[in-house]
Design brief:
The protein has 229 residues and is mostly helical. The protein has seven helices and three strands. It has a three-stranded antiparallel β-sheet with strand order 2-1-3, with no helix packed on it. Helix 5 crosses helix 7. It holds the Pfam family SLT. InterPro entries: Lysozyme-like_dom_sf (IPR023346), Transglycosylase_SLT_dom_1 (IPR008258).
Length: 229
């Protein structure tokens, strides 16, 4: 009769052996080999299949296969979780890149709109020269020179500096005109008629605000903080 054992059965749950139930057979009366010592040395932690009642042997083998299946399922779940996390990371990176590109595209569109708005404004030299101008006429000229999205900021500064009087003079400093250039002669870079032509003054004031503060709204922000610009 053969001596057959199920190695590790008795300690399967404690050692998490995935191959519980591996059969080791030693033929009775067979010549001893170098592996015999190894077989006998593990006898202490081995349950003989023959020692298990015949009615329970199928249950033992089924339990062993169930443990193997559970271990394989756990490994598969871990692999699936890792794969899902990696897919989520890649998708997040893709979404972030897409948002960045969209923001950059919108910024370019706004910049192009501003450029188009500025290029569509009227050249101050195209306005007919008059002997005098009302406040409403001066404002109408400004609306045709200053970009629409910057007009309110420009208007706020002019309201504070000269109340739209293109001939306004600061008695203390000598600042002159709509935007109170100091000295007023600075505006000659926009036209020799800077004393009497509001269009020339508006052109010079707009260029000044763009050069120093990037825009009339930038100039207005500075004015609010300092009461000058």
């Amino acid at each position: 009769m053969s001596r057959i054992s199920v190695r590790g059965f008795a300690v399967a749950s404690a050692t998490a052996v995935t191959t519980v139930g591996a059969v080791v057979g030693v033929a009775s009366g067979a010549p001893q080999t170098s592996n015999d010592n190894n077989v006998e040395a593990t006898a202490a932690d081995t349950t003989l299949l023959a020692d298990i009642p015949a009615g329970q042997q199928a249950q033992v083998q089924t339990a062993s296969l169930t443990q193997q299946a559970d271990a394989q399922s756990a490994q598969a779940s871990a692999a699936a979780k890792k794969s899902a996390e990696e897919a989520a990371r890649l998708q997040a990176a893709k979404d972030a890149k897409s948002k960045k590109e969209s923001a950059e595209e919108k910024a370019k569109e706004r910049e192009q709109e501003q450029i188009a708005s500025r290029s569509a404004t009227r050249d101050p030299a195209s306005f007919p020269v008059q002997g005098s101008y009302t406040v409403e006429q001066v404002k109408a000229i400004a609306r045709q020179i200053v970009p629409a999205d910057q007009f309110q900021c420009f208007s706020n500064i002019v309201n504070h500096e000269s109340t739209w009087n293109y001939q306004a003079v600061n008695a203390g400093s000598g600042a002159y005109g709509l935007v109170q250039a100091l000295p007023g002669s600075k505006m000659s870079s926009a036209g020799a008629d800077w004393r009497s032509n509001p269009a020339t003054q508006i052109k010079w004031g707009l260029n000044y605000m763009n050069d120093r503060y990037h825009s009339p709204c930038g100039a207005w922000s500075f004015w609010q903080a300092n009461s000058w610009y």
